[in-house]
Structures are given as C-alpha cells and as structure tokens.
Amino acid sequence: MTATFLGIDVGTTRTKAVLLEAGGGTVLAAAAAPTPQGDAGGVAVHSPGAVRGVAVDAARRALAEAGPEARAGLGGIAVTSVGEEAVLLDAAARPVGDVPTWFSGVGHAPAREHAAELDRHAPVTGLRHPEYTVHTLAWWARSRPAQARAAVTLTDLGSWLLSSLGPGDLVMDHSHASRTGLFDAPSRSWRAEGLAVVGTGHLALPRLVPSGTVVGELGREPAAELGVAAGVPLVSGGHDHFCGALAAGARSPGDLFISAGTSEAHLLVTDSLDPAATADSEVGCFVTDGLFYLHAAVPSGGLYLTWTRLLGLDPAAPLDALLDGEPVGSRGVRGRVGADRRLALDGLPLDVSPATLLRALMEATAVASRDLTRALSSTAGRGVAQRLVAGRPTESATWREIRTAVGEGAAAFVDAKEATALGAAHLAVRAVTGTLPPPVPRRRPDAPLTSARLEEYARAVG
C-alpha cells in the first residue's frame, strides 16, 4: 500500500474528510457531517471546540472506512476552511470565544467606517472586502471587548484546528492571510498597523507560511482520537475555494476556476500582481506558492433560487426538466445582471412561461460570467488558458451547452465532489512527496457545438 493523505475541509454548512491514495490520486474513503453553527446575540457563529469535534469525528470515520492498511500508511494531514473566520486565542492558546461566520455581516459597518484609515496606515494591494477578518476584528473590539482584550493572537479556523492536532507552530498560510485585509500579497507580508486602526493593536499576528508547508506532527492524544500512529506530518492547508480550484486542475497562470454555487466564484490564477491595475480587485496568494489569484463573483445561484421560488417551482428539480426545451434566445426575453447584483429583464410578454424566464436567467448569468472573466483577464494582463467549471449546475446538459457557447476560453466541466477536502489532501501530498496528485476527473465531453449553433448563440446573446 502506498502512502495515504488526509484532507479535512471545514465548510460553511458541511465538514468533510477524504483519504487519498497518493500514487494515483484515488479517494479511498470519505465522511461528512453538518458544520455546527450557533447564535450569539443574533450573530451566526462557529464554536471552535464544536467544529473540532465534528472534524475529528469525520476524519476518524474516513480512516476507519479505509481500513487498517490505509491508516498505517497515513503520511500527512492538511486542513482547509472558510477563509475569513479567525479564531482569537489567549496566552494559553485557547479560543476566547465563538467565531462570527463569514456571512454574519458583522464587519460590513466597520468596513465602511475604517476603509480610508486602513488605506492610509496599512495599505495593501487590492480591495478589502467587507467580510475580511480585519473588519470582524473591529466588531469584536467594540461588541466583545472582554474577549478581544483576553486574546493575544489569532489564526484562521483551519490552521487552529491543525494546531490542535499536535505539537507545532501556530501559523497562517498565505491564501488565508490574503482574506484578512492585513496582508500584502505581492510582498507576502503582514500589514500589522491595521490592527491598531480597528482597536486590536495588542494582538500578535501568526507566522506566515506558504500553503502546503509541514508545520508540526500529530500528537499522541489526537492520534488516539483518529486511530492512527503519532508523528504524522501536519501540513498547512489553504482557503477552501482555492483548495477546490487546485483539486480541479487550476495550477498554472491563466487557469480560471468557476465554482457554480449560491455565489458563482471566479478565480483566475496569475503569476504577477500589478498594484496599480488591481486596486479595485480582490487579490491574494494562491495555494501553489509563487502564484497569485484574482477573485470575483456573480450571484447566479442566488438568483436561480429566488426566481424558482417566485415562480412556484422546486429549486431542487432537475434543471433540464424545468427548462423544458426552451430555445436559444429565450423567445426574445433578455436579462442583465448589473454591477449592483440586480437582475433586469426586458422583452417580457404577458404570457411568458416559467421555462422561458429560467432560460433567460441562465443566458443572462452566462453573459455576466463571460464579462466578469474578461474584466479579470484584463486586470491580470493575461488571457484565459482553460476554464474549469464545477458545481451542481454542471449536471444539466442545457447549462453546459450555454456555458460552452458563452464564455472565455474552452470550457471543461469537472466532477468536483468534495474538491475542497481533496485539495487539502493534495497539499499534504505535495508537502511530503514534492509532487501533486492528478486533478479530479473531467465530465465526459458533450458533442461539440456546430458552427450554426454557435452562431445562434452569438445572435441571441452577443
């Protein structure tokens, strides 16, 4: 049996663990459970202790399923997690309280309040998103001052979980640091002055490491929890979106990864960042050291959920059945997704059908994705080499056809189940062996679109 590697993903709704056979990249076992979420004074939170319990249990079940030989061959463990959620730790390395979730919105008001001062005192390349950690720290200092004062340092949720598994350094990898608003990606360095701006100047920031760095080893007690031997290398992971992109095959400059979920994330990999050109973009370090990313999103899945409910349709129903053979061009109904994330519809007849509206929405979000890709490409100064698309919508033949016809670069659709946990396992493999396993499989290609069909799309959507 060749060596095996464990990847753990602490996601927003589910926590997953996969065990990978390094040689051929075969997934030997997987387990998952809902990520425990609580409420603290009306704020959605993750409790570090509860999250650790679920993650360790999922890992233990995956290892048990794989069998004794696979457990004996365990060669490394890496963890990925939701990107902006920071655990504040006291002098004994204990969490001082629960962690506001990235979607809780607690940082939006501080982001507006402190934006100019942060840019003056702690400038970084790229745009600081309202969900970045630095804005949540401002909320923490104001709304949970006793906890904030008790803290001496912080790290991301995944790195904290990794540190709880055994002796080793408390670190933060470059990709997670890129989502804090306190890190300058081109220089790969902290901008710690921003802590004082938001009222947490007493905190020490953790040591920075590239994703896929051995930072410790599995301790005896955690090893007993998992049912494996102690001493297994612990490897820094990365932000969950970026680990998913790595597993899907986004590994070189010009690779574009699109994760089609509630928010359709677009991630363009590049080998350089121009601070002047990227001032209004979300940028950072990718999980392959030496590479960077540009990131933006289209609310495609959110629009789909909203409109299926408004139309009285089941959003879980197969998309092809809901579209019911609607023609290219949606019978003249045109949709546009604006910069304010609003959908505008033109040319609606009084007797428009739900299927026509959904088709128009699919075409509108495809155009929005194409335009966003062009903007990212222009900002990066690099064309799209390959467009890797993952997510539940790729199960629809109609959706795949629309995205094949409308978009920059040749589209490839990937079967990315548990890709984030798999990406963490890939980082563990690379850290220990020096090589990356092969990416997840691509879906079987559809028949190529004819030139006449492509012209039909060009006339309908531009």
Describe the structure.
By secondary structure, this protein is of the alpha+beta class. It has two domains: 4-238, 2-Layer Sandwich (Nucleotidyltransferase, domain 5); 250-300 and 364-461, 2-Layer Sandwich (Nucleotidyltransferase, domain 5). Helices cover 36% and strands 23% of the residues. The chain has helices at 48-66, 68-72, 108-121, 133-143, 145-150, 157-163, 174-177, 193-197, 220-226, 240-248, 300-310, 319-323, 354-380, 397-405, 419-433, 451-461; strands spanning 4-10, 14-21, 26-34, 38-40, 43-46, 74-81, 86-89, 99-100, 153-156, 171-173, 183-184, 189-190, 207-209, 214-217, 233-235, 255-259, 264-270, 282-285, 292-298, 334-337, 343-346, 386-390, 411-413. A six-stranded mixed beta sheet has the order 3-2-1-6-15-14. A six-stranded mixed beta sheet has the order 18-19-17-16-22-23, with helices on both faces. A three-stranded antiparallel beta sheet has the order 4-5-8. Helix 3 (108-121) crosses helix 4. The longest helix is centred in the last third of the chain and has 27 residues, at 354-380. The chain starts with a strand and ends with a helix.
